[in-house]
Amino acid sequence: MPELPEAETVRAQLEPQLVGERILYSWARTARITAPSIDEFSARTQNQTIVAAKRRGKQIYFPLQSGDSLLVHLGMTGRLHVEDDAQFESDALHRHIQGVLRLSNGKRLVFTDPRTFGKLGVTRELDFLKKMGPEPLGDDFDAEKIVQKLAKKNVRIKAAILDQNLVAGLGNIYADEVCFLARIHPETLASQIPIEKLRELVGTMRPTLERAIAARGATLKDGGYQDTFGQFGEFIPQIYGRKGEGCDNCGALIERGVLGAGKTARSYHFCPNCQKK
Ligand SMILES: [Zn+2]
User: Fold this and answer.
1) How far is the CA of 95 from the centre of ligand 1 (A)?
2) Intervals of CATH 3.20.190.10 along the chain
3) Residue 182 Cα, ligand 1 centroid: separation in angstroms?
4) Could you say which architecture CATH assigns to the domain 4-131?
5) What pLDDT band is residue 235 in, cutting at 50, 70 and 90?
6) pLDDT digits (tens, 9 = 90+) for 51-105
7) Active-site residue, 266 included
8) 121 Cβ partners below 8 Å, 6+ apart?
9) Scanning 35, 83, 113, 225, which has the fewest C-beta atoms within 10 Å of its C-beta?
10) Is the domain covering 143-270 a CATH 3.50.50.60 domain?
11) 58 noted as active-site residue
């Protein structure tokens, strides 16, 4: 699933192509990918001008003139791209194309999603904005506040920093990355980590995300993420997805562990030498 750097890359690439354009026509293949129904999705997006391209955490959204917002959840394999809208025949569209928005500039925004975990939505209330924690790239990001909150949490550090209500935008890749950079084992209880270590951890969030944005995000071996031009992200994680490879810092073999169980289980990657429990 795209994390903050991938979502920001997609947002920034779409902004100049979409903002100020009117949606002439909306099409979705199945009701499964729209929220609410296809009819309501079409009715509330058609004839609307896109007024901005925004992102909060991992979530991309496009405010419309009506006050509604078009929401895009990329899921595991969702991709957006813009192409010329020479001719529109829904029957002729590739089977992985799940949604199309035809625009007043003669282009169309195309949503492809082979695994269909993604979603296109339209909503008035942006509830996620109210709950979500601070944005690590925001000017008002108060690292010390996050450090103090973490110091009180009796949860594993990786789970703690994945909580979008604490800090927005980190998923598996970047949560593992910052734990590695701060030399903290992902299973350590947050409350047991020395405060200086927590400062180091939170301090690496912004520069790590900024480096990843500069590289247009990270594409893992599954090739799941591509930017809007079909290019892979060039950020190379030092730890995530590198089980069995040598640690960049010490050469020890990177291991993989699992946090939690069942549906909420999360894998993590760590260097057993650099990140001792
Ligand atoms: Zn190491």
Assistant:
1) 44
2) 4-131
3) 11
4) Alpha-Beta Barrel (3.20)
5) very high
6) 999 999 999 999 999 999 999 999 888 999 999 998 889 889 999 999 999 999 9
7) yes
8) 34, 35, 36, 41, 70, 71, 72, 73
9) 83
10) no
11) yes
Q: What is the DSSP letter of 25?
A: E
**CA nearest neighbour of 132 among 172, 163, 158, 159:** 163
Q: Which of 2, 5, 136, 237 is catalytic?
A: 2
pLDDT greater than 90 at residue 202: yes
- Could you tell me the distance, in angstroms and rounded to a whole number, from the CA of residue 136 to the centre of ligand 1? 26
Question: What does the pLDDT look like over 7-47, one tens digit per residue?
Answer: 999 999 999 999 999 999 999 998 888 888 999 999 999 99
- What is the distance in A from the centroid of ligand 1 to the CA of 251? 6
Write down the pTM of the prediction: 0.94
Q: How confident is the model at residue 267 (pLDDT cuts 50, 70, 90)?
A: very high
Name the active-site residue from 44, 58, 156, 216. 58
Active-site residue flag, 2: yes
**Which helix or strand (DSSP H or E) is residue 205 part of?**
helix 195-214
Distance 255 CA to ligand 1 centre (A): 10
